[in-house]
Amino acid sequence: MKKQNLFWGLLLILAAVLIIMNQFGFFTAGISMIDILLTVILSGIILISIRHINFWGILFPLAIIGTIYAEELNITEFTPWPALLTAFLFSIGLSLIFNRHHHCFAFHTGKSDYFGSSVVNEQDDNIVQCSTSFGECIKYVNSENFERANIRCSFGEAKVYFDNAKIPSGKADIYLDVSFGEAKLYIPKTWKVINEVHVFLGDMNEKYRGTNSDTPVVTIHGNISFGDAKIIYV
Q: Cis omega (within 30 of 0) on the bond before 188?
């Protein structure tokens, strides 16, 4: 969190300096203060998204920057809607092709991929997979040695219940990849949850948080783009 505050703090200072320089005529083109501020903020989003390999956070800000400077770049015929639509289609296509991952995190096709409406309640190993597209998936995690869950949701809804999962090691990880969808995680109130999810034009919130203990510690990683996730403590 401190690194993020430092990053955005420096970017805002840079924006202030550029606005002052612009007002004193250092830039020949007529650039407004709002354009400068938006450019700096969008550039920050792009840099963070490159680090997280988030195609939505890279391409959409680029399309908006192109729209802001369409006249200077001589691309007025391509903005705004063709540029935004292109960014939209490229983001979907690249996300489907490359399936963003973190560390050893990967989504698999096969029995863990669900289309339409599915309810899965079976015995699980230490690594749990749940992936849904254009539908709804309800997954009950039944693991005696839960270590990691990989949850992918695009244009759909995923509900994952962890109340039957046991974590003898004291540590586990949940990886989220949500785009144009919603993920709901039902987590025991006794778990200590650390949220490290990167959100771009989306939302992540918690409900009914209880008094958790020191263990187990569950860290939630991943990306949310044009979607939302909820942690519901049970």
A: no
Measured distance CA(100)–CA(176) in Å, rounded? 10
Count CA within 13 A, CB hemisphere, residue 127. 8
CA distance 178 to 52: 13
User: Which run of H or of E encompasses 130?
Assistant: strand 127-142
Least confident stretch, 48-57, 133-142, 161-170, 177-186: 48-57
Contact 14, 39 (CB under 8 A): no
Quote the CA–CA distance of 94 and 90 in Å, as a whole number: 6
Query: What letter does residue 180 receive in the DSSP assignment?
Result: S
Parallel/antiparallel/unpaired status of strands 171-179 and 217-225: parallel
The residue extents of the domains of the chain are 2-98, 113-233
Q: What is the pLDDT of residue 65?
A: 93
- Cβ of 148: how many Cβ atoms within 10 Å? 20
Rounded Cα distance, 117 and 8, in Å: 41
Give me the torsion for CA of 117, 121, 123, 125, rounded to 10°: 40
Give dist(CA 70, CA 61) in Å, integer.
14
Task: Give the separation between CA 45 and CA 57, rounded to whole angstroms.
Answer: 6
Digit-coded pLDDT (tens) for 188-225:
988 999 998 888 778 888 887 766 677 799 999 988 88
Q: What is the pLDDT of residue 29?
A: 64
Q: What is the pTM of this model?
A: 0.63
- Name 60's Cβ contacts closer than 8 Å, sequence gap at least 6: 84, 87, 88, 91, 201
Q: Tokens standing for 25? A: 């005529």
